[in-house]
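This section describes the prediction task in plain terms. A model, or a person checking by hand, is given the sequence of a single protein chain and must write out its three-dimensional structure as a string of tokens. No templates, partner chains or ligands are provided. The sample shown here is typical of the held-out split.
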Amino acid sequence: DMKLVESGGGLVQPGGSLRLSCAASGFEFNQYPMKWVRQTPGRGVEWVASINGPGTGTSYKDPVKGRFTISRDNAKNILYLQLNSLKTEDTGMYYCETADGFRGQGTQVTVSS
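The expected answer:
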């Protein structure tokens, strides 16, 4: 069965960093474009970043450009999101998601002083 398991969230102060991971199983991971989305209070679910199957192409929501980096290790079937220079407005539940909308259970990121 297709499965996505996110981890790496936590509580961090503004300006801090986190690295999120998403372990994939049950499908040909390297064939799937992947993305990170987040659900934030008041803004609903919003797209954050995407990456193509080989990992050679990425795109980002404007507010996270230059702060977040999406990457993948197709040998290990893991998707990553490096979060730097975190802001309070980055607080939310972060999910990895396949191109056709299959999503994991999420990992909570809380940015607060």
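For orientation: The chain has a mean pLDDT of 96.
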